[in-house]
Write the structure tokens for this entry.
Amino acid sequence: MTVAPSTEPSGAPTLRDDALLQVRDLKKHFPITQGILFQKQVGAVQAVDGVTFDVAERETLGLVGESGCGKSTAGRTITKLIEPTSGSIVFDGKEISGYSRSQMQALRNDIQIIFQDPYSSLNPRHPIGTIVGAPFRITDSSLTDKEIKSKVQSLLERVGLNPEHYNRYPHEFSGGQRQRIGVARAVALRPKLIVCDEPVSALDVSIQAQVVNLLEDLQEEFGIAYIFVAHDLSVVRHISDRVAVMYLGKIMELADRDTLYSKPLHPYTHALLSAVPIPDPDNQNRRERILLTGDLPSPINPPSGCVFHTRCFKAQERCKLEVPAFREVAPGHAIACHFPEERKPFDPNAEGRVIRSTMSAEEQDQQLPVDAHPDLVQQAHQDDRSQFR
């Protein structure tokens, strides 16, 4: 192991002036209320808690992290499907974080989203001709039905579907074909930015490759920028230019693809990359593994200091008390860690070892799911019953 060459803060990451999208300190907290007639807020789910990044034209930014870390919420907040709690969203030179629904309607041509579930994201009552043609009908009332049909059939053919299936319904297609319909709907108006909310996670591996290749071809053809949300680090490495690693609503590390995969600095990034399997049984057994104990802490009551310290194998007393600044340690490489470290690349001749995170008994108790606390479960049931008496 070698210590990173620069561990002193060099300031917050600098956002590029010419970037298509600039996100600064974006937060989305969902309020928790109590009461029926007179509700009061008793807490908040801190789903996204101060993320900062930018996306250039024709660039793909990958967002990775465990389930519940806030990736999808961040994407939906950027597209204004969810209203942000605070922070700045600058798209194409315009501050849109305070835009109303009517103001955002004018931007829907330029900002689109591909949803994760290809089954529930399509209206089962409408044929795909109506679904894919909806953007044209909404934005240009002068188009005739014949012109819209021609555009839709051209789009279907472009994404690898038969144009003759114009009048078929979603249930008549496979999962991969439905996701292609979702892609066609998203690119219909030639947007500048598309948020891809885990577009391949529900698909077979072979179909995943086809959809990813389709997205790359469309990006090259139409000049689209992507925010690609995913769990699969291999898929993210293939499609992304830059990668942001999220944990409990915060970005832990942000760097270009090659740097992040070859010279990661954050302990959480090390742990994620060590979990990626190597297609060689001998090398797989000899590699270093970092095992994180415990579950993801609750975003309702995140840990003090660094939110990752309860599961970090390098945590020290400072990590429990002081929130690490999200800072740039090298051009284009930003982290939020007090003790960044560059680990040696995998050596096939070295002996394998396992590194485990360590937690105190009190911290382990805090990591237990709610059903492990009978008193809390019993109280919740009592509260529910009292509301219906």
In short: The chain has 13 helices and 16 strands. Confidence is low (pLDDT under 50) at residues 1-10, 346-350, 364-389. The longest strand covers residues 40-55. The CA atoms of residues 306 and 323 lie 5 Å apart.
